[in-house]
Structure prediction request, 251 residues.
Amino acid sequence: MLTKRIIPCLDIKDGRTVKGVNFIDLRDAGDPVELAKIYAKSGADELVFLDISATEEKRKTLANLVRRVAEKVNIPFTVGGGISSVEDVDILLKNGADKVSINSSAVKNPGLINELAAKFGSQCITVAIDAKQINGEWMVHLVGGKVPTDINLFQWAKEVEERGAGEILFTSMNNDGTKAGFANEALAVLSSELNIPIIASGGAGNMQHFCDTFIEGKADAALAASVFHFKEIEIKDLKEELRRNGVEVRL
Prediction:
C-alpha cells in the first residue's frame, strides 16, 4: 500500500514566504530557505515552492532562490510559478527542482503538458488546478485565482491526465486559508475518476482535517502552509496521529 504524503507549501512573493486567506490578504511567514531546511528535517515527504506572483507579473520563477532551497533539502522538491516552456523547466531542474508545477500556462496551452511529459517524463510534471465552487459547479481559475474561466474542474483534470501529467495539485479556493477542512467531496470525485495521484490543498486547520482528506477525500497527499509555517501543527505529531487513525504514512 502506498503511503500518504505530507507536503508543506512555500508560497513565495518578493523572495519571502507568504500566506493568505482565499488567495488574498497575504502576510509574511518567513525565509523560504530556512523553512525548507526545517521541513526537510522534521519529516515532510516533499516540498512545494510556488512563486505565486510570477504569472501575474509576467516573469519567470526565481531560479536562484530555487537553487538555494534545493541545496538545503533532501526530499522531493516541486517548483511552480511562471513556467510556460521547455526551457523554463530545464532551468529549474538544473537548479535543483525534482518536479515542476504548471497551472495557468497549461490551460492557455494544453499541448504544453504533452510537450513537457514527453521531454522530461510524466513523473516530473504536476498540473496545479485552482478551482472555485460557484452555484454548485467547480470552475477553474487562473493567475493565482484572479481570472475565472468557464472550464469545469473534473473535465479539465481528466484532460490533464490524458495529456501526460504525473499528478494533480487541486486547491479549493473556497477552502484556502479558512482552516475549515479540505474540499473532500470534490477530492473524492477526482480520486475516483483519475488514475494519477491527487494532492489536496486548501483548508487544513487541524490534524483531523488531514485524516478526513485521506479517508473521505481519498487524496494521495495533503499540502498545507500556515499550520506548518506558524507551528500550529508539527509534522511528526501529525504523522503519528494519522497512523493512529489507520492512515499509512512514512515516519
Remarks:
- The chain is about 35% helix and 30% strand.
- The first helix runs from residue 32 to 41.
- The first strand starts at residue 5 and ends at 13.
